[in-house]
Amino acid sequence: MRLVILEDYDQASEWAAKYICNRIIQFKPSQGRYFTLGLPTGSTPLGCYKKLIEYHKNGDLSFKYVKTFNMDEYVGLPRNHPESYHSYMWNNFFKHIDIDPNNAHILDGNAPDLQAECDAFEKKIEEAGGIDLFVGGDDSYNRRT
């Protein structure tokens, strides 16, 4: 593990976004060879997501061959609720990039069987070949479905 200390949130967000961008580009994703990214929600990654959107809009980064798995969702909150992590990810990131909606995986906090939902989610991660890069937030370890 490498510890990187930066002056402020904006610098940290830009550093993280550049790191993610470089990892995706170096991987050279293509049809049948997807880069798999684990993503957090909340306020911590928002600056990073904004930078990734900027890189995409500038033509520096494509998410066409990227699969994402979000680590959390609220239980019992409808996915279209403005406070759900599904809404958060679509409004703050996914709708601004060229990711295929079928490749953006978010847990269903309203599944009738939450354990089965988590098991199916883990299976999708396995089928994707695991996570190539997992991005954590400062409080991501204590919120899970």
Automatic annotation (TrEMBL):
This is Glucosamine-6-phosphate deaminase 2. The keyword NAD does not apply. SUPFAM superfamilies: NagB/RpiA/CoA transferase-like. The keyword Coiled coil applies. Belongs to the glucosamine/galactosamine-6-phosphate isomerase family. Residues 8-129 form the Glucosamine/galactosamine-6-phosphate isomerase domain. PANTHER family: GLUCOSAMINE-6-PHOSPHATE ISOMERASE, GLUCOSAMINE-6-PHOSPHATE ISOMERASE 2. Keywords: Carbohydrate metabolism, Coiled coil, Hydrolase. GO terms for cellular component: cytoplasm. It comes from Strix occidentalis caurina. One of its GO terms (molecular function) is identical protein binding. Its EC number is 3.5.99.6. GO terms for biological process: carbohydrate metabolic process; glucosamine catabolic process; N-acetylglucosamine catabolic process; N-acetylneuraminate catabolic process. Homohexamer. InterPro entries: Glc/Gal-6P_isomerase (IPR006148), Glucosamine6P_isomerase (IPR004547), NagB/RpiA_transferase-like (IPR037171).
